[in-house]
Amino acid sequence: MNTPAPIEERLRAALQARGQLISAHDLSPARPPAGRPRGTRRIRRMLTVATAITATAAAAAAIALLLSSTTPHRPHPAPPAQHSTPTPASTSTVPPPAPSAIPSGP
To answer: Which pTM does this prediction carry?
Structure first.
């Protein structure tokens, strides 16, 4: 079998010595933090609120678009007629139509 390299032996010895320094008392759970939440909790809360607002706005826009595209387009009523004043006859260079030479009737 292979013998471990000297550097590996030194690493194993250092890790074993370090492991012997830890006791059961060192492994007990730490006290919970006290005071106001800071850092990631605060950022996470702000992101949650921003996401909720964005989702609500997107849903409202989608509903408005859906409702506006499904309603039939109603034609706008025609504007009321305006009274116009008669204008003097204009002089035209086009002659009036001539009567037809074909007799009508039996």
So the answer is: 0.33
Residues 6+ apart with CB under 8 A from 98: none
CA distances (Å), 2 to each of 9, 10, 13, 14, 37, in order?
13, 16, 18, 21, 54
Task: Give the residue from 50, 54, 72 showing the smallest Cα distance to 62.
Answer: 54
N-terminal to C-terminal alpha carbon distance within the chain = 134
Tokens coding 23? 């006791």
Rounded distance, CA 89 to CA 91, Å? 6
Find out whether 4 and 12 touch, Cβ atoms under 8 Å: yes
Summarised one tens digit per residue, pLDDT across range 3-59 is 778 999 999 999 999 989 988 887 877 788 777 666 778 888 899 999 999 999 999
Cα–Cα distances in Å, from 75 out to 56, 71, 99?
32, 12, 44
Q: Residue for token digits 């409202």? A: 60
